[in-house]
Design goal:
4 copies of one chain form a homotetramer. Chain A starts with a strand and ends in a 6-residue tail after the last helix. With 342 residues, chain A is an alpha/beta fold. In chain A, helix 10 packs parallel to helix 11. Chain A is 35% helix and 19% strand. Chain A folds into 2 domains: 62 residues, Alpha-Beta Plaits (2-Layer Sandwich); 254 residues, Aldolase class I (TIM Barrel), CATH 3.20.20. Chain A contains 11 helices and 14 strands. Chain A has an 8-stranded parallel sheet. In chain A, strand 9, helix 5 and strand 10 form a beta-alpha-beta unit. The radius of gyration of chain A is 21 Å and the shape is elongated. Chains in contact: A-B, A-C, A-D, B-C, B-D, C-D. Chains B and C meet through helix 8, helix 10 and helix 11 of B and helix 8, helix 10 and helix 11 of C.
């Protein structure tokens, strides 16, 4: 259920409606828009008495929402959400006219590697630095990430290069630490339906980047996003990273058609990860161009100064020179789709 | 790496080899077999000095294991693992000659529903009772389970009907409680690669039932199992529950060919879940027969005394009469494949 | 549209209704049942004037059929279709109480190989002999089959061992020849939507065995069958042979749940091909048992007396001893599901 | 096997090598390149005596080709193949610097519709006209195309608007007629492994456009292409049109990563069909931009002046205004990837 307020409704009127909703044992989610405020209602197991709400001052109408997702829907918020990430070098926005490029190694391996890659990322002009301190690995015997020492290295990258940090949390414990050290909390594909983790991310004070699961439908993806918003965190960025199919010429099959599909249903920004999406270094640039051409709000790419010696995902990491070429090509495509690249 | 001990090696000799392994900064996993003990070594990032181990008394040979999974492999343990579950009504074994049938509702909805279903399950002759107190649901607005009060109802079922309890844990917090109240800790398909949860399950004192992920390959499934064994919990039961494909006449596509594939690679027992595997009540019996015919060690099925009013998964729950028919048909198939049904 | 006739309607009445239908520029398909005759109408692009048909003598009612398939549907014919195949050793029925086992090599390689395998097939008690004279091969440089000389060898097998012959046609030309030499015309998975070939098969005088396409949905499979029936050939046998998924432990993923799904929607018999369905010799027996347990009307399996030297599909061909074991196990499962194996 | 000739080898020397190959009962395929001629050998079931060929004058070396496809491979021909299509308005090239846009209705419905759409296609500046006279339809009761009368309408479109014609053949009979009336013979996705039809197309005198099958791997796609080249027709254009996956927000999942994958393995040009690839009108433009950005040699799109009344595929047909917008956007993307759009 959505309560649509008049465009000139006062803050008091909005607050009064929220109070009434909460007094009914439900949860109110005021969603300010440029023209009007809408108030999402969650927590109801059955029908809500619309009459008493519609009679309140400042209310235009109550709209029953039939879609299984509410808060992520364009019904709840018509204009695009712009996620704002404060960094030492200024605010980075995701979802506005400017594209966002997130780059860095798959994993933080050690201080030297992180600094070497960060220097290249900064030089190429990317906006945020990625790098895993907690790595979800298929095998228990693979490198699992440095943990908190890795986060400290990332914090140093932040300090030294002015780059905001995006890094993955894999459970509640690591999320506490990632929230402390990083600027964006990443939830990986394997955890897209780890609902306990989603709820915790929904209570975090930092923006969240949620990757699509390997075999998630569009509805499941948006419902996972709904878990985060329903806990109160509206600073959410989605990310397509390829799905699992019979096709074997790439590691996953990058499903670029989900970009316009998400954009027609939801106000949330969406990025593309061409590194996991293809799993092949030689495919990262062409698919990056395609991702921007289809309308994505940016990219998250793996880059390594020495991919052949990377502890993980070397085969899909591009080298610094390729990142510079990528930035150049993306800039050109951006102008065609009326976007900019700062 | 596996260290194979002589068939007449003493406990002291086994302990000495383990001590040597641990003194190298590695982890030793003694795996007793009917003829010999093998000792799995994990934690090595590179080659191990075989010579010093092979020279120890009681050691036959050291075998480098090339497969990415070690402890779950038949190389590590030739004979089938039989998981033993103590219940008030006696020990239930999974993986031996006798088949195990686990039945119960999708979710524990309330005390009356749980008791009503449990009575039918007991009457039909099933061996363990299933029922979710923590439900991973696609939507944040769906019924999420009763939590600990649900576990208490399950404990009452255990007491009253003598049935061992199988129930799902969805995060570390719920796992602590499930470990306390239940007999088998279930890890659901969506959490098959929630490695943090797998590690916690690997430290649990109760057997674990691990469901295959929706798009997991055989190797990924066995590697998820390896996470649990590598933490020291060898009481593991696998479960096929259907994979996600283009096919739409069933909710998932039940992949029965994975049963013999697992059995040739691993010593672990494997069940089939025909309820999630098909998502259709009318398909549960035929696929149950097929699962036993192909060689599964048992079934886990959803049953409800009033499926049309179930809070979740009513469409795939069979009714008590169908469970009795299922037990009858399974018993007949069992004898063909040289298994029994107590 | 289906016109349902009274149970005591005369042949003249049926013929009169058919004449009226054809006078409307449509096509009439009388479908005799044990209780009543139904007349399927095809060829209409829009609504049909029901009134004039319902007013005719002998007509009970006219039922608009909303499903996209008509003639293959149980609405058109309630009781199971039994396809009857005359062979030198007597009639083989597919779809009745007795199961049918079709066995033989992937391809007819030469006279000696065919006779050697046929002897084993006969000895094991299988009912029909399979073997390809026209092989659809992924590569143009692979063995493409012997063509008509292969059909002549099959005719000799028929003569010598009294086994009916099942062999594949890959285009209209080979279908003409297969129709002449063989007892059942097979349409392979790759040609399931070769509609030109389906129409030709629909005009054939011999029964057709239609394999499910590699990525065919249930509806597409039944619609392909509808192509054949709509041309007048009602002697059709369906066959599940595995679908293409991400799963890699078998060559295809055998979808046994389609057996009960077909049986609830259609009156046509359906077999299972565990050889292509798994692509692994060691999986053929377990999946054969499962196929019979789930309710299939029989099996089509590849057998070779010397699989390691087979010109095609050796890896999935069982040896003669395994075929005998298969017959034994299938016989035992059959009795559980109230079927027989002659 | 490939025989690589010296760059200054004479025509006589090439002919002599071909004669020798054919005298061995094999087939020679001379493949002229800008620097050298290579001669592909097909038809060998085992090893070939390299020595006698390498000793011939003009021969540099003989290279055993391990890949299952030979003639389509870049090993056989390093530079891109440019398929040249003569049309009344001049030659249209596919595979060179200039992109090719093929547009038109799903099916030729009648003369008026074809002319109306053709006028829009011409006005928008597309290069070739598509439209089906033979339609492979899932249901036997759906509109199956006009047949030869449809081809005559297409010939009239050719005459009146100067547009070359691309239309589908579905069997040998229709291919004979399509070859007579059209400029490019299309083989649809459902027939990608109709090897009999591929062989016939390989003998045709007109270029062929081969669509990827719904669940075809890259290797199967290239092997299907190899069937056509191995019969002597080197004028082949490939086309990605989406694959079948679990994903349901589009009709198929467009796999754009196959474009660079094909281009690294093969010299053949490849187009993208965003209409079938998405099945949704609103997704055609974004995916068209992405297709050009990733490096495709052009597009084949469905356009209809009145999609809501189209006899087939209306939901995925764009309207004429959208085609003009598409041409504009494609032109802008083209310049970024160093291509042109005439």
């Amino acid at each position: 259920m959505l309560v649509v307020m008049q465009s000139h409704a006062t803050e008091e009127q909005v607050r009064a409606v929220c109070d009434r909703i909460e007094s009914l044992g439900l949860r109110a989610h005021p969603i300010p828009g440029s023209n009007r405020t809408a108030i999402g209602i969650t927590g109801n197991s059955g029908a809500i008495d619309i009459g008493s709400l519609e009679a309140m001052s400042g209310v235009v109408e109550c709209i029953p929402v039939s879609k299984p997702y509410k808060l992520v829907s364009r019904d709840a918020k018509e204009e695009n959400t712009v996620v704002r990430i404060p960094t030492p070098a200024g605010e980075v926005c995701i979802g506005g006219a400017a594209l966002a490029i997130i780059a860095g190694p798959c994993a933080v391996e050690n201080r030297e590697q992180a600094m070497a890659v960060a220097q290249c990322v900064k030089k190429a002009g990317a906006h945020l630095f990625r790098g895993g301190a907690y790595k979800p690995r298929t095998s228990p015997y693979s490198f699992q990430g440095l943990g908190e020492p890795g986060l400290k290295i990332l914090a140093e990258v932040r300090e030294r290069f002015g780059l905001g940090i995006v890094t993955e949390a894999i459970d509640n414990e690591s999320l506490d630490l990632v929230e402390e050290y990083a600027d964006v909390i990443q939830i990986g594909a394997r955890n897209m339906q780890n609902f306990s983790l989603l709820k915790r991310a929904g209570k975090a004070s930092k923006p969240v980047l949620l990757k699509r699961g390997m075999s998630a439908t569009l509805d499941e993806f948006l419902m996972a996003a709904e878990y985060i918003l329903s806990e109160g965190n509206y600073q959410l960025i989605l990310c397509e990273r390829g799905v699992r199919t019979f096709s074997e010429h790439t590691r996953n099959t990058l499903d670029l058609s989900i970009i316009p599909a998400v954009q027609s249903r939801s106000h949330l920004p969406i990025l593309v990860d061409p590194s996991h999406g293809t799993g092949r270094r030689s495919k990262v640039l062409p698919l990056s161009r395609a991702a921007i051409a289809v309308g994505a709000d940016g990219l998250i790419v793996e880059v390594h100064h020495d991919p052949d010696r990377a502890l993980s995902d070397g085969a899909q990491s591009i080298i610094p020179e390729e990142l510079e070429e990528l930035m150049k090509e993306v800039r050109q495509i951006a102008s065609v789709v009326h976007r900019t690249l700062n």
